[in-house]
Target: peroxidase
Amino acid sequence: SHTVGKARCLSFRQRAHEVRNPQENYDKYKRYNTFRRILRSICPKSGKDNQLAPLDFNTPARFDNHYFLNILEGRGLLGSDNVLITQDKEGEIIRQVWAYASNQHLFFESFVNSMIKMGNINVLTGTQGEIRKNCRFVNE
Model:
């Protein structure tokens, strides 16, 4: 679902200003450095926490498979996006990202199936669940 929407600067500041991937230090095609400059122009090292950037720079207002192309090019906005392929030791996720990047219809089918599965999750009500004051912590 990261193919549409925006993220706050606070969510991608580290991505914009920290070089973790050694490949990004020497980038003969300048694709990582150019993308990083774009991110830095939107999100400086400090301040502008609420400044927004599209999750998909290519087609920000269209639901399509360009998000997966971005990931393969190292241009995922959020750190969690890029981890999909940089931390995939077995290559299973990379194969799935390639499949979605090369076949939009496959991505659409998978997305529909995922939405149906999520819609079938039973909602906890009454004393079975809680509305958290802070989503990261169980209420006291």
Notes: The helical segments are 9-17, 22-25, 31-42, 66-72, 79-86, 92-102, 104-119. The first strand starts at residue 6 and ends at 8.
